[in-house]
Amino acid sequence: MAAESDFPTTGYLVWRLSTRFRAAADRALAPLGLTHAQSALLASLYGLSRGGARPSQRELSDFSGLEPMYVSKLARALERAGLVARPQNRADPRAFSLTLTERGEDLAAQAIAVIVALQDELTAPIGGRRSVRNRELIATLQTLLNAEEEDMTQTPPLTGQDIGEAAAAIRALLDEQLEKAGLVFEDWVVLRTLAGGRQEREALLRGVTQGLRTDRSAIDDALARLEELGLVNAKDDVGLTTAGHALCGHLQEAVGQASAQVYGGMDRDDLATTRRVLHAVRERALAMAGAGSD
Question: In which domain, by residue range, is 83 found?
Answer without folding.
Answer: 12-122
